[in-house]
Amino acid sequence: MSTRSFGARIRRNIDPKLLRGEGSFVDDIPLPSPLHAAFVRSPFARARIRSVDAAAARAHPGVAAVYTCDEIGALDIELPQLIPHPSMTDPRTQRPLARGDVFHVGQPVAMVVAVDRYTAEDAAALVDVDYDPLPVEVDLERAVMDGAPLVHATHPNNVAAHFRQVSGDPARAMAQAEHVTRIRVQVDRSTAAPMECRAVAAMFDAVTGELTVWDGTQAPISVRGALASILGLDEDKVRVVAPDVGGGFGQKVYQFYPDELLVPMAARALGRPVKYIEDRRENFIGSSQERTQIHEIELHARRTGEVIALRDLFLHDTGAFIPYGIAIPQVASTSIAGAYRIPNIEVEFRCVYTPTVPVTPYRGCGRPQATFAIERALDQLAEELGLDRFEVRRRNLVADHEFPLLRSGLLFADGLPVSLDSGQYHRALALLAERLGAAGFAEEQELARGQGRYLGLGLAFYVEGTGLGPYEGGHVRVHPITGKVYVNTGLTSQGQGHDTVFAQIVADQLGVAVEDVIVVEGDTKAFDWGVATFASRAAVVSGNAIHQSAALVRAKAIAAAANMLEVDAEAIDLREGAAWVRGTNRHVSLAAVATATNPLRYAFNEAAKAATQFAPASRHDGPALRPGEHPGLEATDYYSPPCATWAYGVHGGLFEVDPVTCAVKVLRYVCVHDCGTMINPTIVEGQVLGGIAQGFGGALYERIEFDEDGNPINANFVDFLIPYATEVPPVEILHLETPSPLNPLGVKGVGEAGCIPVGAVVASGIEDALRPLGGAPFRHVPITPSMIHAAVAGT
Amino acid sequence: MSRGKIRRPLPEVSADPRIAVSLTVNGEALTREVSVRTLLSDFLRHELGLTGTHVGCEHGVCGACTVMIDGVAARSCLTLAMQASGCRVRTIESVAAEDGTLHPLQEAFRDCHALQCGYCTPGFIMNILSHFESGEPVDLSEEGIRDVLSGNLCRCTGYQGIVAAYRQAAARLALR
Question: How far is A731 from chain B (nearest CA, A)?
């Protein structure tokens, strides 16, 4: 091998095309005379539909079709619940088009297909739906009270699921506690808000019978499965492609949005390409959201600050439906003890139906809420015991020699017990304290107070179970003509840079340049075994699968090259796109090796001509391929993780709060982060920084507001405040690299990390800054200026 | 739909009034007939096939659709195609050299990992470029740069790489 690319800061392969404006997002793909879909959506949070009259819409010039639930055949069903769990009873899922009832503002009632989007929207406004509005309750705590209006008549108290998990012997430990800290914390509803809204386009080829669907999804293989199953098509006749996708953050793996099924259905029925390009308002009212949880957490401790038991009881808002099961609260409940030893845990939650947009994972998936609960509680424990906030953490953090730390009884989202696999938690905390200048901060704070300035330090630790199974695959092939390497995997990219990190893995194995490795993801015609992109799993699961496949191809290439160059395999070195006899200038290009391993070859190019000048690539008598031998340099392999691998980190910040204007200024922000072995530190930092920006959104700005009738009242980018460059502070990142013992590459996931602790850090910092004013604590994010004002004013 | 079935004819055009629009796009003068309410963003993307200009919010907040109209950054989602009549419009497709060589600003974005999904990127590039080409002094302080970027949303990068790219490009282009 020449220069090792694994671990290097390599620029991304995908960037030039995106920078030139040559990306291929769904709406960029040219289709012949496409029709455009628009939806008629419910204006009520909960209502009965008396009648739907689409006659005027159908008669509108330029309209090709209008579909209500009566015109969609096999799609007129409650969609499948994809992640069953015994804690749910009769889980409710969405119908592609409402039949009889609507359950949230924005729920699709009818679909209009017309010559352009303008016309489709005009016609959608002509669909006359007669609603009978019903009472609603959007407040989570009131929704579970007796007598609250029900979202689904089938579910008393709106409880969709109820689940309790226990690790250790909490009752016994609680009896021995010398101090109990008990707080209530709340995290509000937010949304992923990817810059590209969701999009689906479909084209049916009547000649081949093939339905091609371009879908900005994180999970094309399961979308294909749904389309083939529900529309009764042969899987091989349905091709789902996730092309370039403009951010996802979880929102694009709903399984299944109505449009993902209805648009292909219409394209097939009408014989013309159909596309649906979601607009921003629709993204707010029609695409999934996440975050609202209310926790009541108790830390049962010794006077030293050592926490011996934790009890957490929480409510989780699942919106109008529960298509994704209990994944989010399950992740929250199993992450609740964070990076701490805490041997006895009791955690219980209820998932609550509310008449709002359904809830599925948004980057973080329950972890920001769990982290907010445990970290705010630890700060409170420190306060009550008169301990420093760093010290209380030191006394509870898992020590290096205690890994793996098993929390038996707590089953993570993969159905396996939580087991923190590796880390250097104490070192991370020490690094943060040092970089932040925590030791001298009290003095600085005191000095500033003398000048009427309120400075605060905030910190929060987090852990993140990443790299969930069940599996992914990797297909690696050396192209015989160009010598370039093609790599496929079943999951998809929404900007994470998979095409580069996977290329780095392969480049090292095969001794080729990173830019000569071409990664194709998200196309079911290219590779259709696999799961999807979520849970920070791509580098771990696909990364290791591709690594294994590349190792198989490497072995084949070396064996073939050794035959061609008539030396032992040990003498072969793969580098610079060729196989070399070590210590000599004798070599054969990888393209020529790939050509020579194909028993039928054509002398069309230099590599093929070159191949004939060497000895045969395979030495055996009989047929060209001996039994079991495959032509070419190609291999497919799969990786199935034994369990999740746990990344972690600790963030800290210095804040200045103006108690008059209630403005919060971030003076410093430091992130210490460990995702195991890094494939590309630049890409890791990009993931972390993007996550932190979203974290700041959730900490200070982003909240979906509903009025008491369940109308979202800030469903646009003017009123829903996403941070601009002016709101996100510069971030200092420090890396630790503790390899995961669970996979050959030693990697852990990083996709969600950044966003997880930010809310807790900001609350901790603001609280610290305002402590001399005797203000109320901050246990609810996002923290708005009004909340700061109320805390300071004591109202 | 099976091949043996006779298809109902489907509509081809809307009933919208149409108007001829003449303008210059990326240096090329052209005239097209469009519906009067066609947005400039839709005109560029779907009439001309210049799909590098992206639409993120359709209400002028996110900046993804930023193009230059007569040298000044403008939201193509808030502009009707017919309003651009007689104007010089410049899009992301005009920034790299003919042979695809990246402009120093694009190169800086690549060097500094200033893009991830790339959806907002053309808007940032056109905004920064209009600023660089305005002849106004370039403020390279952290606050100054972030102020220029404050009309564009990015959901992936956290902006740090974009700030660095701005600084690198300004240095390469010797802007002060």
Answer: 8
What's the rounded Cα separation, in Å, for the pair A776 and A766? 11
Spatial distance between the Cα atoms of A99 and A88, rounded to a whole number of angstroms: 23
Mean local confidence (pLDDT), A263-271:
96
Q: Do the Cβ atoms of A269 and B58 come within 8 Å?
A: no
Tokens of B156: 């992936």
Residue B160 and residue A689: Cβ atoms within 8 Å? yes
- Determine, yes or no, domain membership for A154: no
- Full-model pTM: 0.97
The pLDDT of residue B1 is: 54
Helix (H, G, I), strand (E, B) or coil at A450: helix
**For A185-233, how does the pLDDT look when each residue is reduced to its tens digit (9 = 90+)?**
999 999 999 999 999 999 999 999 999 999 999 999 999 999 999 999 9
User: What token pair was written down for A568?
Assistant: 């032992």
Judge whether A485 and A474 are in contact, CB under 8 Å. no
Question: Which of B52, B116, B163 has its CB closest to that of A21?
Answer: B52
Nearest to A685 by CA among A3, A5, A12: A12
Q: How far is CA A234 from CA A202, A228, A272, in A?
A: 16, 6, 20
Domains defined for chain B, CATH in brackets: 18-94 (3.10.20.30), 104-172 (1.10.150.120)
Question: Both A789 and A652 in a single domain?
Answer: yes
Residue that the structure tokens 């939650």 belong to: A349
Q: Residue A185: inside a domain, yes or no? A: no
**Domain boundary, last residue among A593, A618, A639:** A639
Query: Does residue A653 share a domain with residue A634?
Result: no
A-B contacts (CB, under 8 Å): 215
> Which one of B156, B157, B166, B167 makes the best mutation probe of the A interface by having the most chain A beta carbons within 10 Å?
B156
Answer whether B156 sits within 8 Å of A690, measured CB to CB.
yes
**Facing residue for A246 by CB, picked from B7, B111, B117:** B117
ipTM of the complex: 0.98
A233: tokens are 């098509």
B-chain residue closest to A245, CA distance? B117
Give the CATH number of the domain where residue A411 resides. 3.30.365.10
Number of structural domains chain A divides into: 3
Cβ distance of B153 and A691 shorter than 8 Å: no
Q: For the segment A679-724, what is each residue's pLDDT rounded down to a tens digit?
A: 999 999 999 999 999 999 999 999 999 999 999 999 999 999 999 9
Q: Which residues of B touch A702 (CB under 8 A)?
A: none
Q: Are residue A270 and residue A238 in the same domain, yes or no?
A: yes
Domain boundary pick from A264, A286, A308: A286
Separation in Å, CA of A604 to nearest CA in chain B: 27
3-state secondary structure of A232: coil
C-alpha–C-alpha distance, residues B164 and B153, integer Å: 16
CB spacing of A271 vs B93 below 8 angstroms: no
A458 and A482 part of one domain: no
